[in-house]
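hi support,

uploading two proteins for the ticket. first:
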Amino acid sequence: MIKKLKFESIADLFSDKINSGNPRMSSVSRCDYVIIKDKEILFIEETNLMLKDLLNPRVYTREIVENVKKMWGSITIFMYYISAKGLIDEVKGKDRIYILLLWKFDGKTVRALSNMIKTLIKYRNGGYADVKYVTREDVDIRKGAN
């Protein structure tokens, strides 16, 4: 069973609830897709690191901070959703994996990306079983393929 959630609309509902309908309040950072599979739940953030200079410490740090916010915002929204829908038993015991879905990247980005994944793993704090990256050439994860 593969189930792709309409995470954008779920996140909008969550933001409306916590902001009490105030449009001037900022929304919660979140990933782009959530796919529930038989043994795992994939939280997928689609990004293009080719446009970013990850060798610049400010850009690199900003990218780490943004992804940590998306990791924890996504899991918060997901927990709200499964609690509201009564789906806790359906997702219990499944590994949660945060995935960066990347466009192609060049040689200078590889080391920075590797370090970024190591840093993001430090911030998973039991909320995620793993943090990975996948390139579009490897697989079209948006369709739930592995």
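and the second one:
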Amino acid sequence: MIKDAQGRKWFMQFKQYRNGWHWTARHDDFGQEAGRTFPTKAEAVADAERTIQSHDAIAQGKEYFRRLAERGSERRLTPEDYEAIWQAGTKRHA
């Protein structure tokens, strides 16, 4: 379990594959995962901690779905929408 900057608990799962370690994290209905594999479990754990503690995936997800409902489809999202979605996940840590 890793806590994010807001104190929410993320439950972790680490899996070893032939080419390395991969992590996934869950908090309620939200999830995130590693974008790649890591040579050691320790590196995967360090990446998971760094990612979860420095990025608010829940705020970013909520902003994405709010803008998606506003626009009607993903194809109608503008570059400004994507920037605002990205900012929603980072502004709480500034």
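thanks. also noticed: The chain has a mean pLDDT of 93.
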